[in-house]
Amino acid sequence: HEVAKVKLDNKRIDNASHLCNQILTAFPHNYQATNFLQEIENQKNSFTRKVKYNELVYSRGKKAKDKKNYEEAIELLKLSISNNEKLDSAVKDLASCYQELGEIEKGIEIIEKHFDELPDNSSTYNFVANFYSAAKLYSQAIKYLDELIELTPNSKQVDVLSRKVFCLIQLKKYDNALETIDDILEIRPNHPSISYWQTKIQQAKKSGIFTDLDFLVEGISFTTFSGGIPPVLQYSLDRCDFTGLTAQVIAKQDFT
Fold first, then answer.
1. Phi, psi (deg, nearest 5) at residue 130
2. Using CA atoms, how far apart are residues 87 and 65, in angstroms rounded to an integer?
């Protein structure tokens, strides 16, 4: 009975229930085990109701965010986080609410407060790197891009490495940017956009004039939270000759 109580206190409900049933098999009239088994069932029912309620809270918060009802969304997503339900999604959606409201510092606070509770996976590192980049905190973005690179297969690292180059250019770490570009070209030789960046950086270093690089990074962004075509793709489209597309498709300029 005491062992079962410890397991219940530690939220190991199924183990506690199993022990009580073992006791009752051996001692069918043990009133302590009978009463305790009823307490376990009550806790299980309460837990089930709580899970259903909290899933409803997160779902309502997500719908409010999608409808741009930010005040309601923030209240519900905070409640979902405090209940430790749908924590990963709730933290990301809450941070995104603040970003969409132009209060990105509050979004950063949410991420930093709950980061250790988020899954240690590529989805987390990708989101956090994007968020820091949007906040123009490029050194922090690079930290999480490096973590993301470690989790990304070599053949799929070009996008992440390109985002790192973007951050390094913003930080005016041009030698590091060129080293990262070399890593990209090892994976995908003659990559047109990356080769263009390489040429521009080399020219700027040689001339000492870096204004073209300022123009370059203004036209390229890897972060979008509001839907539509990401700026990095729009940048490529603006410089594309659309070889292979029909005149009708080109005229519509609808590439979404």
1. -60, -40
2. 16
| CB of 80 closer than 8 Å to CB of 61 | yes
Contact indicator for 111, 81 with CB cutoff of 8 Å: no
Q: Are 77 and 54 in contact (CB under 8 A)?
A: no
Averaged over 47-67, what is the pLDDT? 74
Task: Tell me the pLDDT tens digit for each residue of 181-229.
Answer: 999 999 999 888 889 889 999 999 999 888 777 766 665 554 444 444 4
Which of 167, 121, 120, 117 has its CA nearest to residue 143?
167
What DSSP string describes 74-142?
Answer: HHHHHHHHHTTSSHHHHHHHHHHHHHHTT-HHHHHHHHHHHGGGS-SSHHHHHHHHHHHHHTT-HHHHH
Write the DSSP symbol of residue 255: -
Q: How many residues would you count in the chain?
A: 256
SS3 state of residue 50? helix
**Neighbour count for residue 164 (Cβ, 10 Å):** 27
CA dist 182 and 238 (Å) reads: 25
Cα 203 to chain centroid, rounded: 36
Residue in the block written with tokens 């891009």: 145
